[in-house]
């Protein structure tokens, strides 16, 4: 299987596929991928209301 196909199926770059394979060759342990991207931050309701109030006063 080509690196491009592996990368697409795992939502990672082809460079990352090469890095993971290299790590596997060195250690013999299959790397476990975490979910890619930044974790979402939950904004408290009071801050949402404050932002809406502030933007309405500007407009």
Polypeptide structure, described:
There is one protein chain. The chain has 59 residues and is mainly α. It has one domain. 61% of the residues lie in helices and 0% in strands. It has three helices and no strands. The mean pLDDT is 90.
Layout of helices and strands, plus pairs?
Blueprint: H1 3-10, H2 14-27, H3 45-58
Helix pairs in contact: 1-2
List keywords for this structure.
single chain, 59 residues, mainly alpha, 3 helices, 61% helix
Output mean pLDDT: 90
**Largest sheet descriptor:** none
Radius of gyration: 21 Å
Helical content stands at 55-70%
Count of strand segments = 0
Summing up helix and strand content along with how strands pair, one would put the structural category as mainly alpha
Q: Unreliable segments (pLDDT under 50, ≥5 consecutive)?
A: none
**Multimerization status:** single chain
- The end-to-end span amounts to 56 Å
Strand content: under 5%
Number of domain units: 1
Order of helices and strands: HHH
Instruction: Give the number of helices.
Output: 3
So what's the overall shape?
elongated
């Amino acid at each position: 299987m080509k690196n491009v196909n592996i990368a697409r199926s795992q939502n990672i770059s082809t460079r990352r596929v090469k890095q993971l394979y290299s790590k596997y060759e060195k250690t013999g342990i299959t790397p476990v991928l975490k979910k890619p991207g930044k974790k979402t931050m939950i904004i408290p309701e009071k801050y949402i209301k404050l932002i809406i109030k502030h933007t309405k006063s500007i407009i």
